[in-house]
Amino acid sequence: MNLHWTYQEFLSHLGGESVGTIPQGPVREIVYDSRKIISAPGLVFFALNGAFRNGQSFLADAYDKGVRIFVVERLPAYMWEDASFILVENSLKALQKLAASHRKGIHYPIVAITGSLGKTTVKEWMYHLLSGKLQVYRSPKSYNSQLGVALSILQLPKVADLGIIEVAVTHPGEMAAMREMLAPDAGVLTNILPSHAREFTSIHAYANELTSLFSDCHWVLTSCVEQGLIQVKNLAILPNELAEFEEEIQFTDENNHQNARLAIHAASRFLSVDKERVKSLPHLAMRLETYEGINGSLIINDTYTMDVEAFKSSLSYQLAIANGRKRITLIGLEPEQAGLTSKLNELCQEFGVQEIHFCQKDEELTVDISHALVLVKGERFMQRIANRLKLKQHKTQLNYDLSALKHNLNQYKSSLRPMTKMLVMVKAQSYGAGLTTLASYLEKQGVDYFGVAYADEGVELRKAGIKTPILVMNTEEEGMESCVEFQLEPAIYDFEQLDELLKTLIAQEKTAYPIHIKLDTGMKRLGFHPSEVQQLMEIISAQPEVRVKSVYSHLADADNPSSDFTLKQIQLFETLSNQIAQSLSYPFMKHILNSEGMANYPSAQFDMVRLGIGLFGLSSNASFQKRLKPVIEWTSSISQIKQIQKGESIGYGQTFVAPRDMKIATIPIGYADGFKRSLSNGKGCVFIENVACPVLGRVCMDMIMVDLGARNVNVKSKVEIIGENQTLSDFARSCDTIGYEILTSISPRVHRSYSEEE
User: Fold this and answer.
1) Distance between CA atoms of 64 and 80, rounded to whole angstroms?
2) Cα angle, residue 698 at apex, residues 693 and 699 outer, rounded to 5°
3) Strand, helix or coil at 240?
4) Is 137 helix (H, G, I), strand (E, B) or coil?
5) Are 236 and 221 in contact (CB under 8 A)?
6) What are 141-163's pLDDT values in tens digits?
7) Confidence band, pLDDT 50/70/90 cuts, at residue 666
8) Catalytic residue list contains 312
């Protein structure tokens, strides 16, 4: 939150009575759910009461998580000596009063959006049309209640061009508190539906409640045309068509088309609307998301809510894009919604849906959806169904010396400041070492984080019992749900990927989920461009579903100890990190150094470093290399020894012809094992009894032939591929590559073993 009050200022805004210790430092953030607290300075816990919760019951939990300021309606039986308690008559009203005080300090226009349906859509589309051109703050997607609006207001930045706040009411009298807090300058009314007026005496009473929000607005925009239903000054009725933009609106169903018109018209009050932006209005998270499904199907994922009016809109959309496809509807209801079954069936029949299936939570889906257009609708457990419908020994051995690996880990750790954390990369099966085996060992050594490339690697670690935090570097759409299910922390590097994660988090009702922001400071691989950081922060600030755990980047020239390019990367990373810090009210980690960076640029270690290839004893820094030990030994055996006559050829293509009588050995290793074909015809060698034996002829898929010279060698002799005589670096050089590629390309069929000397 964008708060920075002294305790006395905070107290004066609340108007409560302070009891206990006067805290030091500013008030920075409001929390109310002890389950979602992440410890940070300046937290204030509001003990809110509801139908199923008593905030007083969670004071101890909040205290254990670092909170020292509490807003309560009664003092607890036990009061901690280092805590402050602010006694108020009503915690929610106190929070709303606080929001109203914060609102008075906001001097840019605030647009309030209310109505029965479409509030989130219009809000998000207004943001889409204006973002990047104006600095726009919008309320989080689910923050439209008495509590949510208060929290949204408290998140308003001091400086911006526009604020857009979504407001919902369900009971008479609620809007008065909303209006007093928000004091909007302008308003948008999406629609007024009888189905949402159940708690009111009439549709007119419901309409009056909604429109009372706009009593002091300079303008109010709506598409509602019901005569006499809306009584509000400065009202503008949206025309049925916006001639300038009709062709650009890509939505064919009536509701989304009307929402697009509202968003365009409202946005144009602040800025000339770009037609290309209109063309790219997105399907929002959990609203009519369409994607290719299994068995040639097409899936419409509309698992945001279960409402009869919204269901009609979904069926309308399904019909609009069917193009002759068979239409199937999968509906998920909670037990208390069973009464809707008859009405939903009736609507499906009205729209000509061929198959209707009502799904139960955790039920295995057995419906044949081949080549059908499938609408998945209902409560959020249906998101899991929607996701499911979307379109792995021989004598050669690889031994890992865990004692040497531990030594290398400690060498890097000793080069860091005491508080710097250590992330160890275990992607690509821990560089071929075996994912769970190596991670289990490293966890015992006390590393702070693991890094993996993809979510399935993290899932494998969790299933193996790994508890250490896991950063997923390349989180694909298919892995989002797995990340949440297995508590993996995704790296976010572009807006589309962030949107996919938000969809998953909303579906599972997650908030403050840890993410890691990847910045592109020069590598040109993955990451947000510096010009995108402001827009990124606007999105993250508006999304309670995510919380930034770290910001990081990757050095492109870290093995060069005197690289101006690297110094510029580090400087840019620090600048961008500071920019992000100004947008967030809580601390986060920063990291940019990999193994080579630790050796060559130790002053840029920030809060954490990422150890990869260095763990296996490789460093381009000659001084640091001397401190490391080799970790792997790759060995094989001899399958057969032969005598070759002068003039005979060896191997495929007759590329080698014996210049003399020779003794050769056939070794059961080939390019399928990771022994590169480029090592053919003497470019590569193995060591037998500490003597180099060059490869003769071409490397085969499963075998090589080598020159034994004049020595007496038997088939029991050990064959060294990588070891004391030929290091990993030596072998990589002979292959014209780097150690990374060698480690990760050794085949899984090569038997792995692990040794440790204590």
Assistant:
1) 11
2) 75
3) coil
4) strand
5) yes
6) 668 889 999 999 998 989 999 99
7) very high
8) no
Residue labelled with tokens 């309030």: 112
4: Cβ contacts below 8 Å, ≥ 6 apart:
26, 27, 28
Give the helix ranges, DSSP H, for 75-144. 91-104, 119-130
Do 219 and 251 form a contact (C-beta atoms < 8 A)? Answer: no
Q: Cα–Cα distances in Å, from 319 out to 252, 332, 351, 368, 687?
A: 10, 20, 7, 20, 70
Q: How many residues does the chain have?
A: 758
Contact yes or no for 108/162 (Cβ under 8 A): yes
Domains annotated for the chain, with CATH where assigned, are 7-94 (3.40.1390.10), 105-279 (3.40.1190.10), 289-388 (3.90.190.20), 399-625 (3.20.20.10), 632-755 (2.40.37.10)
Torsion of CA 464, 468, 473, 475, to 10 degrees: 60
Given 568, 642, 652, 718, the catalytic residue: 652
Indicate the DSSP class of residue 393: -
Enter the tokens of residue 270.
């602040």
Residues pairing with 246 in the sheet: none
Q: Extract the tokens encoding 190.
A: 């999406």
Place of tokens 């009503």: 90
Longest dimension (CA), the chain: 108
Cβ within 8 Å of residue 562, ≥6 positions away: none
Does residue 586 carry a catalytic annotation? no
Q: Which of 456, 444, 453 is nearest to 481 (CA)?
A: 456
Amino acid identity at 347: L
Looking up tokens 């940070």 gives: 40
Strands of 115-160, DSSP E: 136-138
**Contact at 8 Å (CB) between 602 and 413?**
no
Active-site hit among 377, 427, 518, 590: 427
Tally of CB atoms within 10 A around 352: 11
pLDDT tens digits for 207-259? Answer: 999 999 999 999 999 887 665 677 788 887 776 666 678 888 887 667 788 89
Q: Where are the alpha helices (H) located in 268-364, listed in sequence order?
A: 275-279, 308-321, 341-350
